[in-house]
Amino acid sequence: MRGSGAARLALLVLIVTALRAFAAVRFPMVSSEAYYHLWARHPDLGYFDHPPMVAWFGALFFGPVDASPLAARSGPILLGALGIVLVHRLARDLWPGGSTAWRAAVLFALAPIFFAGGVVLLPDTGLLLFCLSTWILFLRAVRRGPALLPWILAGLAAGGALLSKFHAYALLPPLYGYLLLVPGHRRLLATRGPWVALGTALACLAPNLLWNADHGFVTYVFQSERSGLGAPGFEAKNPVGYFAGPLVSLSPLLYAAVLAALVRGLRARREPETLYLLLAGAPILVLFALLCPFTSIGLHWPAVGFVPLVILAARGMELGCWPRLARWSAPVAGLFLVLLLAAPDLARRLPDRARLPLLGDRATAGRLKEALVDWAALGREVREVVEQAGPERFPMTMTDDFHLAALLAFHAAAPDRTFVFRARKAHQFGLWLTERPDLRGRDAIVVLKVRERDGFRLDEDDERRLAEVFASVTPGPLLPALPPGGGRVSWALRVLFARDFRGLGT
Question: What are φ and ψ of residue 307, in 5° steps?
């Protein structure tokens, strides 16, 4: 890369990273982020929901810092900056001359889904980083021929992807299809290199497989059940959501450019560079397209598959295929990015019952507002209750929902003393609790969410569940949740003092 090009790329990375840091402070931690951040405080070879890379990155990047969204999100922010560089590098390796690499880096940096991926603490951060690394290193290994070191490096990168998220199982086979489909590369299948890469990737995955074997392959069972494919039933809204989702996650014009690039790429598939990007990204998108009629696909799940197609779109723009898309894709993506940054203010103005279907089947403005309450203040209040009651007398904080438990653990700075006493829905907290038989017979501060429509009282189910797992319960203070922008308090946290924990409830 020439000096001016490097300076321009560095400026882009700095600007986007600064905006991501701003967003990390502006947007409150959601429960899934707090959940994964808690994993970083309990390093292991595997976890209930996902492979361990998200926890390892969290432990590496300021994971021990308590109650700081910026510190917790430092991993995605820094790795997101590296992602922009890797997109530029992959495009540059494919087409060394011209503006494709720069265009691809800009489009990738401005697309809302990839911008958010550099802020939000999710397993997808590691998946994207290692997928990009695999695509770069595999391509270089192909060009180096039988030399083993490039293949080993490609295998290590693929192993990192496998340790990040299950999507990576769709990563390697299409790349081997590339070797098979390009006549000049077929001979490599008869050499050790590609198979050494595969063996290296599986060796990286082996510790997590052994952990799963010791835990009844819980991660694989959970993801299989979560998919909803055990009892498939067609739902028309799922395909609509899947195919319409990129209108928001990519922005309309960039989505149009990606689709145009896909069509152009299929027509020009004999060009090795184009074929490589098609096989890198399209199979994951096709897989979810086949699954979406039978299960709901998260907005961010297919994002990694769009990255190679964004590079293809940048290539088409450089060749002058779509002059209007080339002119307006980046500005429109930037506009959608501005709307994303303004989302908290926009959400405050929506009626609570307004549906947000692209964010999930049950997403409403009211649910979004609940996520935007001042959790930092609630966490401080819970911590004050614990300190006044005496941490020695009440050595654990417990609740009946793992989302609430994760937020309490994060904002109350109590990652080692927060547990869930109910097994209504299996989760990582259940594994941790089974590993702590010493907690039986101990007292706990119990925190439950209660709503204004119920008079901020516990219902009969709450009382029954508490009676199942504790010998006695004494009411404590009520901690109202402050809605964004003021207004009526619709829910609160009810604190209770519970004696003699009897074990996990049902």
Answer: -60, -50
Distance CA 194, CA 148 (A): 9
pLDDT in tens, 450-472: 988 888 888 888 888 899 899 99
Tokens of 369: 């507002």
**288-297 confidence digits (pLDDT tens):** 998 888 888 8
**Which tokens is 356 given?**
């947000």
Spell 403-428 as b/e; 16+ CB within 10 A means b: bbbbbbbbbbbbbebbbbbbeeeebb
Amino acid identity, position 124:
D
Return d(Cα 158, Cα 132) in angstroms, integer.
9
DSSP H/E element including 398: strand 396-399
Contact 134, 171 (CB under 8 A): yes
Helices (H) and strands (E) in the chain, counts: 24, 5
The encoded tokens of residue 294 equal: 């039978």
Q: Which helix (H) or strand (E) holds 500?
A: strand 491-501
- Do 54 and 121 touch, CB atoms closer than 8 A? yes
pLDDT tens profile 392-445: 999 999 998 888 999 999 999 888 889 998 756 678 888 887 778 888 899 999
> Could you give the CA distance from residue 409 to residue 428 in angstroms, rounded to a whole number?
13
What is the per-residue pLDDT for 326? 84
Instruction: Tell me which H or E stretch contains 419.
Output: strand 418-420
The pTM of the full predicted model, rounded to 2 decimals, is 0.92
Give the pair of three-digit tokens for residue 293. Answer: 């009629």
Please state the three-class secondary structure of 233-277 as a single string: CCCCHHHHHHHHCHHHHCCHHHHHHHHHHHHHHHHCCCCHHHHHH
Q: Are 72 and 62 in contact (CB under 8 A)?
A: yes
Q: For residue 443, what are the contacts with CB-CB under 8 A and spacing of at least 6?
A: 393, 394, 395, 497, 498, 499, 500, 501
With a pLDDT cut of 90, the percent of the chain lying above it is 59
Q: Are 331 and 104 in contact (CB under 8 A)?
A: no
Q: Cα Rg for the chain, rounded, in angstroms?
A: 24
The span from the CA of 5 to the CA of 98, in Å, is 11
Chain-centre distance for alpha carbon 98:
33
Two tokens, residue 56: 């390892």
Rounded to 5 degrees, φ, ψ at 450 are -125, 155
Within 319-374, residue ranges assigned H as helices are 323-341, 343-348, 365-371
